[in-house]
Design goal:
Length: 176
Amino acid sequence: MTSDTDTSHSAEDWFQMGLDRGRAGDHQGAIEAYEEAVKQDPNHFKAYMNMGLRYGKLLMNVKALDSFKKAIDIRQDDAMAHYSLAVTANLCGLTDDAIKHYKEAVKIKPTYAEAYSNLATVYYQFKQGKDAIENLLIAQKLFDEQDNKQMVATAQSILQDLYKEFRMSRDDFPES
C-alpha cells in the first residue's frame, strides 16, 4: 500500500506502475497505483479507465462504474468509456444506463459493431425483438465491413433464432 504523502512519483509514474502491476496480474496493486495517479492528477482519464477495468477483473462492478463515470466526466466524447460503462451497468442490472451508454458509444463512433451487438443483447433480455434485430443487423453489417467473419457468422445465426422467436423475417427490416 502506498502512503498518502508519497509525492516522489508523478501521476504518470503511478499510471505506468499501475499498467505494470496489472500486466503482472496484481489487480489490487494496479488499482492502488491508479488511485495515486488520480490523486496527483484528478483529470487522468486513462487512470480512471484502467482502474475501472481492474475493478471489473476483481468483480467490484460498483467501483468499476464509478471509475468509468469519472472517466466520462473528463472525456464525454470517448466511445470506449461509454461502452465500458454500459457493459458494467448491464452487469449491475442497470439496464437503462446500459442502453443509454451503448447508444452514446455508437453516436460517438457509428462503426462500433460491438456496441450495437451488445445493445441488441440488452434489448433481447427484455424481449424487445424489433430493437434487438435492428441493432444486430447493424452490428452484422459493420462486422462484415471489418472483415470479422466469425462475428458475422455469429450474428447471422442469432438473427435466425430471433426471426423465429419473434415471428419476423429479414423482409421486416428493409432499411437495415
